[in-house]
Amino acid sequence: MAEEKEAKSIDQATVDMIEKATQDGVRIVFERAEAIKPCPIGAEGSCCSLCAMGPCRVPMPKGKEETPEEKKKRTGVCGATAETIAARYFTRKIAAGAAAHGDHGRRVVEAFLLAARGESADFQVKDEQKLLQLALDLGVEIGDRSNNEIAIDIGEKLMEEFGKQEGELLFLKRAPLKRQEIWRKQGVAPRGIDREVVEIMHRTHMGVDQDYQNLLRQGTRAALADGWGGSMIATELQDILFGTPAPVLSQINLGVLKEDEVNFIIHGHEPHLAEMLAVAAQDPEMIEYAKSKGAKGINLAGMCCTANEILMRHGVPIAGNFLQQELAIVTGAVEAMVVDVQCIMQGLTEVASCYHTKIITTDPRARIEGATHMEFDERNAMASAKAILRAVIDNYPNRGKNVRIPSHKTDLIAGFSHETINYLLGGLFRASYRPLNENIINGRIRGVAGVVGCNNVRVTHDDIHVTLVKELIKNDVLVLETGCAAMACAKAGLMVPEAAKEYAGEGLASVCEAVGIPPVLHLGACIDNSRILMAATAMVKDGGLGDDISDLPAAGAAPEWMSEKAISIGEYFVASGVYTVFGVNWPTIGSKEVTDYLFKDYEEKYGGMWAFEPDPLKMAQLMIAHIDKKRKALGIDKARERILYDMAMRRELEAV
Amino acid sequence: MSKIIASAAIRGAYKIVGQAEEKWQQAMDKWGANEPVGFPNTAYYLPVIYGILGEKVEKLGDMERILKRCKALLPPPVREEHPLPYLAPALDAGMATFFAEEIIEAIRYLEQPDFYLKGEDVTDEKIWLGAADDVIMRKRGIEFVDGTAPGFAAILGAAPTKEIAAQIAQELQQKNIYVFMAADYNGKRFAEQLVEAGVQIGWPTRLVSFGPDITSAVFAMGFATRAALSFGGIEPGDYRKVLIYNKDRIFAFAMPLGFVTDEWYANAAGAINFGFPTIADTPIPEVLPTGITTYEHVVSNIPHDQIVAKAIEVRGLKVTVAEVPIPVAFGPAFEGERVRGDDIYLEAGGGRTPMVEWVTSKRMEEVEDGKIEVIGPEITDVPPGSQLPLAIAVEVAGRNMQEDYEPILERQIHHLINYAQGLMHIGQRDIAWLRVSKQAVEKGFKLSHIGTILHAKLHQDFGRIFDKMQVKLYTEEDKVREIVEKAKAVYAARDARIEGMTDETTEIYYSCTLCQSFAPSHVCVISPERTGLCGSYNWMDCKAAYEINPTGPNQPVPKGECLDPKLGRWKGVDEFVTKASRGKIDHYYFYSIVHDPMTTCGCCECIAAILPLCNGVMTVNREYTGDTPCGMKFTTLAGTIGGGVSTPGFVGHGKYNITQRKFLIGDGGLLRMVWMPKMLKEEIGERLKVRAEEMGVPNLLEMIADETIGVTEEEILPFLQEKGHPALSMEPILG
Q1: Which residue, of A324, A441, A540, B146, is most buried by count of CB atoms within 10 Å of its CB?
Q2: CB-CB: which of A435, A510, A656 is closest to B292?
Q3: Residue range A268-277: average pLDDT?
Q4: CATH 1.20.210.10 correct for A82-242
Q5: pLDDT one-digit tens code per residue, B299-342
Q6: Where in chain A do CATH 3.40.50.2030 domains reside?
C-alpha cells in the first residue's frame, strides 16, 4: 500500500477544479476516495469470492513471522492456499485486461472489414504503405490487387486470430527469434486471443487449476495474446484506417476548453467515432449550426486514450487524463462528454447532473444509467457522428453562468509511432534505428524506459509519473510513453524539444537536440503499447544491443496504475523480456511465493521480471540499475576507443 | 542536427531547388523538353539522381519529374518554438539539394558547353574541371580501391590566406586524400588561392577544382555515388545501399572554410546522408551524437593547423603515412605533378642522356643497409637547367630475397620517385626519364634523396622479402653506360623466364581481393598467363605480395583438379572463389568470354565483347570514350559488368592480357579479335604482331578494324571480309 498522500495533484488545473467542485458541492473521485478506503485484504490478493462457500479471507499475519503450521492453516474453505488465491486473482486481472484490448481489437477489425468491403463509405484505407507492409508480414498476396482486396484478406486473417484454437498468433513471428523460442520453450505462445481469456476464466473457477505457477503460465499466455495479439492488431489496423501518426504539435490540459465555443469531450478508448467527430467538427455546416446556437465555433477535446488516438493523428488537443474526467465537467463549460468504452467513471453522470453537461454513451457494450444513449453506427459513421454532434450543439444554450475554465494548458509534440521514429532518426533515405542504438552503445543515451499506465487517486495525481520520468531523463534514459502517463508528462512540459535542455542529462539532451525530439516521446494510447514492443524489436534487429528484447538496456514502469489492463500490459512486457516496475500497490503481496515468483523466478524464465516500488525516485533507481546491469552484460558500460578504418578493415566489411 | 543547422539547411534547400526550377523553366522556354542534357562521357546520367532515385535524366523534360520529387522532399521550415523533429526533414532537404544542383549543373553544361574543361588538367586560362567523366572516375576509382587514395575532402569556400590554403592542401595531399573544391567565401575560392600560391592543381595532383559555385559541390557526390554503382555493384535506385556503401567505404568529409551559408548547410545535410561529416573552421553549432555518420556529424571551430587531422579522426579514417626524410613533401598525390620548361633544374634520360634503373640481388655481406652513394656530380655541383646521365642501382640482400622479386622492386622506382614533390619520372628500365624542379632543389633536394626515398619506402613496403638495401647513383657517363649494358642482359633473361611460364606448369595461382574494399563479392584469380584485369598485378606480383603480407588480399590458390582445360576451370579455383566471393560466384572460366567469364570489380583496363555478326570479339580500353561496335561505350560496358558479376558475352581484362597466349583461347583466342580502338592498336601493336605471328597470321593487326573503319558491326564487316579476317571462317562463336 502506498502511504497516505499529501497533495491531491501536482497539476494546478486539477487542484483548481477540485476546489471548484467543493464550492459547487459536487462529489468527485477525490472526495469519494476519502470516504472509501481500499479493502486491505482484497488489495493484497488474499480474498477469494469465487464460490458461495466464501468469500474467504486469508491475509498474511501482520507484524510477525508466520510459523509453517500457521501458514498451512491459512487457506480458504476449499483448501485453496494464499498462493492459489493470489495467482487466481492476478491471472483474472490479466484476463480482463486482455479481454478489453482484445475486444477493442476485434471492433477495429470489424470496422476495417466494413471499410475494405465498401460497406462503410466513411472509412477507407488511409495508409497504403502500412497496408502493404502488413500484407507482406502476413503473407497476403499483393500482386495487382486493389487495396481493398488486400485489406479484406488481411482483415479476415486477423479476425481469425480471435477465435483460433490451435497454433500460434501470427504476430509472434515479428518478435526477435530468440524471444519466440523462449515463449515456445515456456509453453506460453498464445493460440487464439479469445481462447486464452476463456481458459483463464475456466481455470480460475472454483476447483480447477490450483498450482500457482501453472495459473500464472496461462496468465502469461493471455497477456501475450494481448500485446502481440489484440493490442497489436488494433494499432496496426487503426494506423491503416486512420493514418500512421507523425509528429504533431498540440496542447493539453483543461485550459484547452473555450469560453465561447461549443466544448465537447470525447472520452474512452476506441478511435472510430472520435475520428468521425474530428472531421464533423470541422464541417462548415456543423460550425454554422453551432453559430446559430450562439457559439463561435466547435471545440473538440479528448480525454483518456481516445484523446491520445486523435491527438496522435490529428493534433486534437487533450483536456486531461483519467482523474480529470469529472473535473472537465466541473468547469461548467462542457456541453457534452461523448464516451465509448473503458475507464469511464460512473460518477460522471452524477457530476454532470450538477451542470448542463450531457453524458452521451455510444457503444452498446457500455451504457450508463442516467446517460443519454446515442449508438454509433459504423455503417453510417459520419451521419451518426453528426447526429451526436447536433445533440451536443443543441445543449450549448443551456450552459449556465457557473463557468470557470482553468488557464492551464501546455504545448506538446506527439505522434511518435515506431515507423516514424525509424524515419526521424535518418530521414527518408537512411531511415533506421541505428542512430538510437549507436548512441546507446556510446553511452550518450543510457537506456530506454517505457513509462505507461493510468492515474490512481490513491497517490498524488501525476506526481509519480512526472517525478519518475524527470529522474530518468536526468540520468540520460530516453522515455517512451503512452496513455495517461504520457498526458501527465505532457502537462509537466516534458514533451517539447526544449525540455531536453532543461531536464535531460547532457548525453540524452545532445541526441534530442540532434534529432529535434523531446526527451519523452508520446507513442499513443494504452493499446499502442504494442508500438513499444515493435520499437524494442527494431532496436534488437538493428544490432549491437544483443539478440533479444531482454538484452536491451531498457525497463518499463506503470507508476500510477489502477486498471486490470495495466496488469495485462505489464505481464506482456515482462514476458517479452522487460523489467517492469509498478507503483501504488501490488496485488499479490498476500503470497510471498507468488510475489517472489513474479519478481525473481520470472527473470530466469522470461528475461524480464516484475518489481514493486511506490516511491518514484527509488523506482527510477531500480530501473537505472537494471539498465546498467544490461549495459554491463553487453560490454557497453565502459567508454570505447574510436575505431579508425584502414583498407584491410574495409575489405572485411560485408556487402550491404 | 542542431535546430540552427536544420533550419538553415532547409532554407538553403528551398533556395537551391528554387534556383533549379527557375533555370529549368528558362531552359525549357529556350530549348524545349526534348533537348538532350547530361554530364560529359558518363553512363550514369546525372549520377546522384540516377543512383539514389534510379531515374535517368536524358532530356530537359525529364527534369520536371525530378523537380517534383525535390519539392515533395522539401519540408516546412523549422519552427522557432517547439519545432517538430528536424533531423530527418533536414536530411531529406539535403538530398533534394543534390538533385537540384545536378539539374542546375546539367543546364550549365547545356547553356555554356565550354564553361568547364574536359579531361584532367587545368589550363592557364581556365581552372574549373566540372563533372569527372567516367574515364577519370574509373582511373581514380582504382586508387580508392587499392587504398592509395583513402578518401576525399570536399572543400567549400576559401582559407583566410593563400598560404593557409596551400598548407591545408599539402597536408591533405600528404595524407593521400583527394581534395574536391567548390564555392566561394567573400569572393575567394580555395582553388584560386592554390593557383596564386603556385600549387599545381588538377586531377593529377589530387587537387580537383570542380567549380566556382556551391552547386559544383554536387560533382563530389556524383563521384561517390558512381563508386557505389560501379565498384559496389549496387543497382541504381537502391538508395539505401548506395548511401551505406559510401558511409562504410568512401572516407569523405566536407570542410567548409569561411561563413557557412544556408546553401552550404543544405549541401552538408545532404552529405550526411552519405555518411560524410562536416568539419568547419567557423564556430557553427556542433552535432556530436553519432548515427548517420560513423562518428560526429558536425565539428566546428577547428584551427587551420589542426583541421586535417581532426577531419580524418572524425571520419574514422586510418591513414598511415611513411615518413621519408627528404626536404620535399612526399605522397601519391604528387605523383601526377608535372615539371616543365623553365622550372627544370636537372634532367636525366628521356633520350637526352643515358639513364637506367636496376635492382639486383647481392650477398648479405656485400650490402650495407642504408648506404647511399652518389658516384659523380651531385645536383649541387651543376647549374640550373643541366642534364646528367643517371644510373640508379639498387642492391638488395636478404634470406627471403629471390631473383623473381627484382623486377617487382624495380617497378616501384617509377612511382616512388614521382611521389616526391617537384620530381617527375617517366618510364622504367633503360628508358627512364627524370626531371627535378628548381623548387625542389631550392628546398634542398639532392640526387642522394632518391636513394633515401627508395631505401625508406622499399623497406617499408617490401621489408619481408629483403633485409638490407643500398643505393648507388651514378652520374658519370661511362659508369652509366656500363650499368646499362649489365642491366640489359638481365632484362632479357627476366623476360625470357616470365615468358616461359605457363598455366599448365604452374600449380599455384594467386587470388586478388584488393578491390573487396569496394566490390565486396569480386575475386580475381591470377595465373601466369592471365594477368590481373586492372593491369596492376601479374602472377609474380601476387606471389611477392603474398610473401610480404601472408594474410593480405593476395592468397595462394592451389588450382587443383582441372575441370576444363580448354575453357580454363579448376576445382581448387572454384572452391576458393565461392568462399572469397561470400557465395556470390561459385565458378568462372579463365579463357572464355562465351561461357561464364571471370568477374570484374569495374576497374579493368579493357572490356571485350562478342560481336555475333562478325563472329568475333572486340575490345575497348578505358581511355577510349567513343562508340564501339557492340553498341556500348566503355563506361556503359563497365557499368553493365562491374561489381563482381559474371556476364557471358563480356569480360574485363588487362591490356597485356590481349597478347598473352591464353587470351580467350577457349573461344579461339586472339584470332577472334575484329575491332580495337586505334590508340590501343598502337599501344600494344608490337607485341600483338609477335603473338599473331606465333598464331600463324602475321598481318592480323592490319585486319583488325578500328573507329576509323566504323563503330557498328555493319560498318566493319565489309572491311573484315575484304581483309579476309580469320574470325570469319572460324566456327560460330555462339555455337
Answers
A1: A324
A2: A435
A3: 93
A4: no
A5: 999 999 999 999 999 998 888 777 788 999 998 888 888 888 88
A6: 248-398, 418-634
Least confident of A229-238, B441-450, B598-607, B608-617: B598-607
> Looking up cell 500500500, which residue turns up?
A1
Please identify among residues 233-272 of chain B the ones whose CB lies closer than 8 Å to any CB of chain A. Answer: 234, 239-241, 243-245, 248-249, 251
How far from each other are the two terminal CA atoms of chain B, in whole angstroms?
61
Instruction: Give the DSSP letter string of A203-269.
Output: HTSTTS---HHHHHHHHHHHHHHIIIIIHHHHHHHHHHHH-----EEEEESGGGS-TTSEEEEEESS
Phi and psi torsions of A451, nearest 5°: -115, 120
Under a CB-based contact definition with an 8 Å cutoff, are residues B652 and B522 in contact?
Answer: no
Residue bearing the bigger pLDDT, A258 or B500: A258
CA-CA distances (angstroms) from residue A421 to A246, A479, A493, B138, B543?
Answer: 9, 13, 21, 39, 52
Cis check for the bond before A55: say yes or no (omega within 30 of 0). Answer: yes
Q: What is the mean pLDDT of residues B142-148?
A: 74
The answer, yes or no, to whether residue A472 has pLDDT greater than 60, is yes
Q: Residues with Cβ < 8 Å from A598, sequence gap 6 or more?
A: A90, A216, A574, A588, A609, A610
pLDDT at B619 exceeding the cut of 50 = yes
Residues in chain B: 735
Provide φ and ψ at A434, rounded to 5°: -50, -50
Q: Name which of B289, B312, B316 is nearest A514 (Cβ-Cβ).
A: B289
Q: Which fold has domain A248-398?
A: Rossmann fold (3.40.50)
Got the DSSP string for A88-122? Answer: HHHHHHHHHHHHHHHHHHHHHHHHHHHHHTT--TT
Find the angle CA(A451)-CA(A454)-CA(A457) to the nearest 5 degrees. Answer: 130
Q: Is A405 left (phi over 0), alpha (psi -120 to 50) or beta?
A: beta
Closest residue of A to B552, CA-based? A648
Tell me the residue type at A242: F
Look up residue B337 and give its amino acid. Answer: E
Convert the pLDDT of each residue in A518-568 to its tens digit.
999 999 999 999 999 999 999 999 999 999 999 999 999 999 999 999 999
B734, B653 Cβ separation under 8 angstroms: no
Would you say the pTM of this structure is higher than 0.80?
yes
Using CB atoms, which residue from A247, A511, A654 is nearest to B520?
Answer: A654
Instruction: Report whether A211 contacts A80 (CB < 8 A).
Output: no
Read off the pLDDT band of A1 (50, 70, 90).
very low
Sign, Cα dihedral of B381, B385, B389, B393: positive
Q: Which residue has the higher pLDDT, B1 or A614?
A: A614
| B531-570 per-position pLDDT tens digit | 888 777 789 888 888 887 788 788 999 999 999 999 999 9
Q: Which of A522, A514, A440 is nearest to B87 (CA)?
A: A514
Burial call B335-352: b when 16+ CB within 10 Å, e when fewer: bbbebeeebbbbbbbeee
| Angle formed at CA B145 by CA B139 and CA B147, multiple of 5 degrees | 110
Backbone phi and psi for residue B562, each to the nearest 5 degrees, phi listed first: -80, 120
Report CA B729 to chain centroid distance, whole Å. Answer: 40
Is pLDDT above 60 for A163? yes
Please provide residue B162's backbone torsions phi and psi, each rounded to the nearest 5 degrees: -70, -30
| Residues of B with Cβ-Cβ distance to A431 under 8 angstroms | 88
Instruction: Specify the residue for cell string 543510457.
Output: A446
A-to-B residue pairs, Cβ atoms closer than 8 angstroms:
153
For A573, the grid coordinates are 512486457
For the domain covering A418-634, report its CATH number: 3.40.50.2030
CATH code 1.20.1270.30 region(s) in chain A: 82-242
Domains of chain B listed by start with CATH number: 3-315 (3.40.50.2030), 338-497 (3.30.1650.10), 508-729 (3.40.1470.10)
